[in-house]
Amino acid sequence: MKFLLEVTMDDARLTADPAGELGRILRYWGGNLHHYALEPGDGSAVYDSEYQEVGRWRIEATAGP
């Protein structure tokens, strides 16, 4: 499986303070992941500190041998 996080960096909050906003997003979603089974197909929208959607995270299956 893969955990994928995509964040659009041209959002105003991310442009003004990219390290701060990305850190906040990672802390929030890192603490929130226990609410998910973390199986392929799981995922959710990702929001900045003003609750504007800036991306998504998702779990994908990987191809087997």
Task: Please characterize this protein's 3D structure.
The protein has 65 residues and is of the alpha+beta class. It has one domain (2-60). The chain is 31% helix and 29% strand. The chain contains 2 helices and 3 strands. It has helices at 12-16, 18-32; strands at 2-7, 43-47, 53-60. The chain has a 3-stranded antiparallel β-sheet with strand order 1-3-2, with helices on one face. The two termini are 13 Å apart. 8% of the residues are buried. The mean pLDDT is 90.
N-to-C CA distance: 13 Å
**How many structurally independent domains?**
1
Compute the gyration radius: what is it? 13 Å
* Biggest sheet descriptor: 3 strands, antiparallel
Summarize the structure.
This protein has 65 residues and is an alpha+beta fold.
Write the layout of secondary structure elements.
Blueprint lengths: L1 E6 L4 H5 L1 H15 L10 E5 L5 E8 L5
Antiparallel strand pairs: 1-3, 2-3
Which key terms come to mind for this protein?
65 residues, alpha+beta, 29% strand, elongated
